[in-house]
Amino acid sequence: MKIGILTYHKAQNYGAVLQTYASQEVLKQLGHDVEVVDYYAPAIAKSYRFFPPLAHEPFVRKLKVIVLFLLTLYKEGNRRRRRTVFHQFVTSKLQLSKQRYTQPFETELHYDMYYIGSDQVWNYDKISGFDSMYWGNFKVRDDARKMAYAASLSTSGFASEREDFCRKALDNFSSVSVREKQLVDLLQPLTTKKLTCVLDPTLLLTAADYTKIAVAPSSKRFVLAYALNGRSEVLREAHAMAKKLGCEVIELCGIVSWRNSSERREYASPEEFLGYFMTAEYVVTSSFHGTAFSLIFHRPFTAILSHNGGDNRLTSLLSDVQLLNRIKGAHFDMDTCDWLRVDELLDQRKQESLQFITNALS
């Protein structure tokens, strides 16, 4: 079957490009002919401009962006390096369609199935509204189908007008799965299709699969800090753990910042990202994918909640593997993880997720 993947593959975000890679590799392992449709969502493209558009932003937001831009102007070299390593990964590791798209297809393409997801492709706030491409609002052949795999969106502030949009858009799909249990509860009343909760595609590959492309760092023993939110708490916990273990701290960064520190890795490649997780003594993270790769590589970790409405991604995953006690808080438990049990629980969820894909493609 000829499958076209529609997802966030051009974001300068480790989770985004690695979940795309994982989807591609899983579908190839299942024997399908796979391409990543080279769609560059306008909202994503705008967010990576040299100077982001501010016309419709509030004054305080404009002022903050301008100040931060001026503070980081001297680090434009790091921004270029970061763009380069992500571009190299996307062009060398992903099988992209020959044509690039920036709007819904006007002609029927040659795919038998459009695989939409995973990641936050349905997140209204992430991409300045719903992107109709990620909701299947485009023209296809009469015999072609669309499926959603591990799609995700924020459940906070889900307004009634968004419900109306989702109710209509869900009809575009022959099969629908989401990444978080809370989304099943939110969206199931809007459709007669059975919604299934599945694993993020990064968790469908094995540590051995990632080791093939990982680039290990030359660093000494280190505690890895990776925060997309709650950075100060993540770093505080990472330094406390590093002191306890007698290690240094390395911080993998989601953006290029005005901050200067020998700990920061602002332009590590996705392959190096994997290498850092593969070799860390310990991980402290507030990121869903940071948690996922800690599980994949059997790295002991502390998860930090952001309390920004997006924590359900992380708590849903840790609930699946019975590791909610790894969340920093009143019930935090630093005891050694039972990785055999974790693997058993993940494998059960993995088989369920692969069965969903198999059924959707049949």
Tell me what you see in this structure.
The chain is α/β, with parallel strands linked by helices. The chain contains twelve helices and twelve strands. The chain folds into two domains: 2-47 and 81-206 and 349-361, Rossmann fold; 214-346, Rossmann fold (3-Layer(aba) Sandwich), CATH 3.40.50. The strands form two sheets. Strands 3-2-1-4-5-6-7 form a seven-stranded parallel beta sheet. A five-stranded parallel beta sheet has the order 10-9-8-11-12, sandwiched between helices. 40% of the residues are buried.
Q: What is the compact description of this entry?
A:
It is built from 12 helices and 12 strands.
What is the tally of beta strands?
A: 12
The H-and-E topology, N to C, reads as EHEHHHEEEHEHEHEHEEHEHEHH
Number of helices: 12
- What is the helix content? 25-40%
Number of domains: 2
Largest sheet: 7 strands, parallel
CATH secondary-structure class of the largest domain:
Alpha Beta
The percentage of residues in β strands lies in: 15-25%
Please state the CA-atom Rg, rounded to the nearest Å: 20 Å
Runs in which pLDDT lies below 50 for 5 or more consecutive residues are none
Q: Write down the overall mean pLDDT.
A: 88
Distance between the termini: 10 Å
Spatial strand sequence of the major β-sheet = 3-2-1-4-5-6-7
In CATH, the topology of the largest domain is named Rossmann fold
> Pairing-aware structural class of the strands and helices?
alpha/beta
From the spread of the alpha carbons, the general shape counts as globular
CATH-level-2 architecture of the largest domain:
3-Layer(aba) Sandwich
